[in-house]
Amino acid sequence: MKRRELVGQIKAKKSFLCVGLDADIHKLPKHLLQDADPVFAFNQAIIDATADLAVAYKPNLAFYESLGVRGWDSLQRTLEYIPADCFTIADAKRGDIGNTADMYARTFFNTYDFDSVTVNPYMGEDSVTPFLKFEGKWAIVLGLTSNAGAADFQYFTNEAGTPLYKHAMQKMASWGTPENLMYVVGATRPAELGELRQMLPEHFFLVPGVGAQGGSLAEVYENGANADVGLLVNASRSILYASSGPDFAEAARAEAMRLQLEMAALMEQ
Amino acid sequence: MKRRELVGQIKAKKSFLCVGLDADIHKLPKHLLQDADPVFAFNQAIIDATADLAVAYKPNLAFYESLGVRGWDSLQRTLEYIPADCFTIADAKRGDIGNTADMYARTFFNTYDFDSVTVNPYMGEDSVTPFLKFEGKWAIVLGLTSNAGAADFQYFTNEAGTPLYKHAMQKMASWGTPENLMYVVGATRPAELGELRQMLPEHFFLVPGVGAQGGSLAEVYENGANADVGLLVNASRSILYASSGPDFAEAARAEAMRLQLEMAALMEQ
How far apart are CA B3 and CA A6, in angstroms? Predict the structure, then answer.
């Protein structure tokens, strides 16, 4: 999906919500476990309940890989089920030397038809650029993540006072364009988000950390939005597991709608 | 596999060779493509030809994932075929927030029964420690990698003159022990390897970059060995694709034996 289409979807739906499809087999509503493919049955219900409210879906690969071959089957079925007007993100956080990165890019863009894949930048340029060579496809590189461990290395600071995450994000901007490169910036760090938006006015930011991790949507918008909105805010557990009972899909819809209505209000300010 | 067993294997085989199983379907000898599972057929022949010369095997996950479900089947069959006296490495370079890292750890240690998995440290402590909680299993964290892109962020240096890779490797030593934590250090950087061995006298280093990437085995040993050897030197393409004809397995054995004999000579110095 091209940037223009993504921005169009955000404006049409008045939403920049990304639903994280972290379908944990151990947390699925009990009645689904009788299904031949419980993970797909769960995702299907979640997608049906949220597709008019969300502009993107982000399966977290760990949850599929952990099930072995049948997990990859569930992933493929889920990807095919996501409506064409929604942006798809393989949350895989891959990163390896050039020839291997190239193989990962072909996996997620050819073997599977994702619009984007999350990429870990630790190994540098040849680990990132293979993901930038596919028309209409995106690399979403880790910048400043939402977890506690982000403090360990991402804030490692040079003599000039620049932390690694900022140095890395600036440098990576020269490898791609706002048409094929996004950044992960955690919702739990609104002050840094504002500085990063100053530094990178045009790029999309994928923002996890609203919901279970405690980030504020209003603060994210205030600090991170640009003229095209330029944000995809992800919520996973707060939507997927809003109820553990037979009403899980309605509860997921209610939580997604709560977020979408807040997004629409922020966009109309 | 425990450290003591791994060191025992190295001493018994006079080898610290790890064979990287990067089976690229586009590079396999033509006659194998008629097999129902060409990747497994190839790996099986490579393992048969090298199992007395190597102490470890390292499937590179990208090459299996790129084939979708049948790639994961080939991986499972390959893993089951590797002899029990060889150490197994899932070269996956995973790294994510705590609950996801935990899922990845369960994938590679429970769903699949690998001895170890490579881990990317960019996201910090909660992305690494879930891999350290399994008895007899290992996290192999990226330290200083062998590729050109390593220069981009791994050499990012603080006010005290310490580069990120060194800071990260030192810090991660406090998260695990030499019994459950190894580091990736590229063979293409022998001077740094020597400094890192001073800093971390006991830990194993997994060393890629000998072979196709041009690193020297003698320099690696001279700079990186400790009393237990403490090295696993990986070669992938130089062994796997030593010949593209029907004699690929014999050619692979010849290249593995060349490396093993050089290793034995270095160990006997």
Answer: 51
Identify the CATH number of the domain in which residue A130 sits. Answer: 3.20.20.70
Chain A interface test: which of B21, B22, B131, B152 (most A C-beta within 10 Å): B152
Note whether A149 contacts B107, CB cutoff 8 Å.
Answer: no
Measure in Å the smallest separation between the Cα of B74 and chain A Cα atoms: 10
Q: Which residue range is the domain that position B28 belongs to? A: 3-268
Would you name the residues of A annotated as active-site residues? 93
Give the Cα separation of B19 and B29 in Å (integer).
Answer: 18
Distance, CA of B123 to CA of A145 (rounded, Å): 7
Measured distance CA(A188)–CA(A213) in Å, rounded = 7
Count of C-beta atoms within a 10 Å radius of residue B135? 7
**Residue A268, exposed/middle/buried by CB under 10 A (0-12, 13-18, 19+)?**
exposed
Specify whether the CB–CB gap between A68 and A244 falls below 8 A: no
* Cβ pair A17, A259 in contact under 8 A: yes
Alpha-helical segments (H) within B158-216? 164-173, 190-199
Task: Tell me which DSSP letter residue A110 carries.
Answer: I
DSSP SS3 for B238: helix
Q: Is A45 helix (H, G, I), strand (E, B) or coil?
A: helix
The C-alpha angle A85, A128, A86, rounded to 5 degrees, equals: 5
Residues 6+ apart with CB under 8 A from A196: A143, A144, A166, A169, A183, A185, A205, A224
State the ipTM, two decimals.
Answer: 0.95
CB within 8 Å: B149 and A76: no
How far is the CA of B267 from the CAs of A93, B11, B218, B230, B262, in angstroms? 38, 9, 10, 11, 9
pLDDT tens track for B212-227: 778 899 999 999 999 9
B96/A62 Cβ within 8 A: yes
Query: In angstroms, rounded to a whole number, what is the distance separating the alpha carbons of residues B225 and A93?
Result: 32
Task: Find, among B23, B80, B76, the residue nearest to A68 by Cα.
Answer: B76
How many whole angstroms separate alpha carbon A192 and alpha carbon A165?
Answer: 10
AA letter at B268: E
CB B21 within 8 A of CB B58: yes
Q: Which of B156, B184, B207 to mutate to test the interface with A (most CBs of A within 10 A)?
A: B156
- Residue-wise pLDDT for B44-93, tens only, equals 999 999 999 999 999 999 999 999 999 999 999 999 999 999 999 999 99
pLDDT, averaged across chain A: 96
* pTM greater than 0.90: yes
Rounded to an integer, what is the distance from CA B176 to the centroid of its chain? 18
Give dist(CA B157, CA B217) in Å, integer.
Answer: 28
Q: How far apart are CA B212 and CA B163, in angstroms?
A: 27
CA angle A76, A81, A86 (to 5 degrees): 110
* Total number of domains constituting chain A: 1
Compute the distance between CA of residue A223 and CA of residue A233 in angstroms, rounded to an integer: 13
